[in-house]
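Example S7 (structure tokens).
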């Protein structure tokens, strides 16, 4: 197959050159379409997340898809992977630097300050469901555009709030049918001062051991030593085991805070593993950090994570505001659900397929379809020009339980044929009775109603 000439510019593209499409006429590298089968998972996830957040009094927030670059540079940290090499940054027409959101927290803190939310009753609790962008090396479970559900609890600090945040995440994973398959990892990385002292201790420890480190880890050691604890390189993992431990450096207050969080978790029956090498990749965290791991070996094993970020608001010029947040990657959650064969209840299955022949029949069909839908019967009509036989084949593929057939004879006699696709039987009824017949056959409890007056649930 000849490649499109423009494809030459996309030569680092890899993977699915599907269905005759070559770059640039396919999704950008590391990005994917969400097709209907996966949307069933997305819809289900959103439903669960909204439900749990509503129960907890969290409100939904959406910030713009991009921010001024400084918002991320200042908060996430200049020497983190995200800021140093993963941001989609560009200038607008006036030369202002903008960046597609690589994560949700910094933007929500910016919004908190911008809208004076410190004047609201605290804590202010938000959740979001949004796409984020990171220019990472794509691999299974790691994308350049991915969706996150996350929440933030801003304005108060207490170990009970940390435990409550973890509980909310834990319950959501449970509702999604993957709670038992995840392992909660938790650590306390102290306050800013103890982190500084600890960082120096790490540097000292690695002094003279650089030759055992990969290039990447050498860089980490230089720029952001804490990140070395995150290393996936075998030699570093072994060295990390004897490295100084955080808990010997964090203050007494942090240790007590941590112990209290753990106590609450135990009381709540949430299993956890203390993980002294868990630091998370962003600079703004302090005290509690946690992640949920899927138990698989390999790099992409975090299905969600969060932590406390008490200093972030001040970095953005806002008032001192302690806060804790959490985010889960929807693609990774869905992958875990599929691995665990979690079936998503779908409301999308059709009830009725209306097949017709001839222009007069089509005229009768349109109002009929409309009325069936209004009565809660999920109805699809074949409004093209195909033969009835072909239309029925389509109905078969949609696995509808009932077909309504209207041909020339039926139009003339004011009737319609109702075909039970499961039993293979059929009967002729008066046109004026079709809707009632169908409503009865589908059953009151199965009808799909939409009432615009229903309360709004975000
Ligand atoms: P983070 O704050 O970076 O730990 O991200 C929180 C969660 O988002 C992770 O636990 C993943 O589930 C998900 N996530 C982060 N980066 C990606 C990515 N590049 N592709 C897919 N999911 C991601």
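Recovered sequence:
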């Amino acid at each position: 197959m000849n490649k499109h000439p423009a494809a030459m510019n996309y030569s680092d593209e890899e993977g699915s050159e599907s269905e005759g499409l070559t770059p640039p006429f396919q999704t950008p590298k590391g990005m994917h379409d969400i097709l209907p089968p996966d949307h069933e998972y997305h819809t289900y996830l959103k439903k669960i997340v909204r439900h749990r957040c509503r129960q907890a009094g969290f409100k939904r927030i959406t910030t713009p898809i991009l921010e001024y670059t400084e918002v991320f540079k200042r908060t996430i940290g200049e020497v983190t992977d995200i800021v140093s090499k993963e941001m989609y940054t560009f200038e607008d027409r006036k030369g202002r630097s903008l960046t597609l959101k690589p994560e949700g927290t910094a933007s929500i803190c910016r919004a908190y300050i911008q809208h004076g939310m410190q004047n609201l009753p605290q804590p202010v609790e938000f959740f979001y469901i949004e796409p984020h962008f990171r220019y990472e090396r794509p691999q299974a479970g790691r994308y350049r555009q991915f969706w996150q559900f996350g929440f933030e609890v801003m304005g108060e600090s207490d170990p009970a709030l940390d435990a409550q945040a973890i509980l909310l995440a834990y319950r959501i994973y449970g509702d999604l049918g993957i709670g038992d398959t995840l392992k909660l990892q938790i650590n306390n990385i102290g306050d800013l001062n103890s982190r500084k002292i600890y960082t120096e201790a790490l540097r000292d420890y690695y002094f003279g051991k650089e030759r055992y480190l990969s290039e990447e880890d050498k860089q980490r050691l230089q720029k952001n030593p804490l990140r070395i604890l995150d290393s996936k390189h075998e030699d570093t993992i072994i060295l990390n085991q004897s490295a100084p431990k955080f808990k010997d450096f964090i203050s007494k207050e942090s240790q007590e805070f941590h112990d209290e969080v753990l106590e609450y978790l135990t009381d709540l029956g949430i299993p956890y593993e203390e993980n002294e090498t868990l630091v998370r990749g962003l600079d703004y965290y302090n005290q509690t950090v946690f992640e949920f791991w899927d138990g698989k070996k390999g790099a992409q094993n975090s299905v969600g994570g969060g932590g406390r970020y008490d200093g972030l608001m001040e970095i953005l010029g806002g008032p001192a505001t302690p806060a804790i947040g959490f985010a889960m990657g929807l693609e990774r959650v869905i992958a875990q659900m599929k691995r665990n064969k979690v079936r998503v209840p779908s409301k999308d299955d059709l009830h009725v397929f209306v097949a017709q022949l001839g222009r007069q029949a089509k005229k009768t069909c349109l109002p009929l379809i409309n009325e069936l839908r209004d009565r809660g019967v999920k109805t699809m009509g074949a409004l093209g020009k195909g033969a009835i036989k072909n239309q029925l084949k389509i109905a078969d593929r949609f696995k509808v339980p009932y077909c309504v057939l209207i041909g020339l004879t039926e139009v003339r006699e004011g009737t319609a044929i109702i075909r039970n696709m499961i039993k293979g039987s059929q009967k002729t009824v008066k046109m004026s009775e079709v809707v009632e017949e169908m409503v009865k056959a589908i059953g009151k409890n199965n009808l799909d109603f939409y009432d615009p007056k229903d309360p709004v649930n975000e």
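Notes on this example. The longest strand covers residues 124-133.
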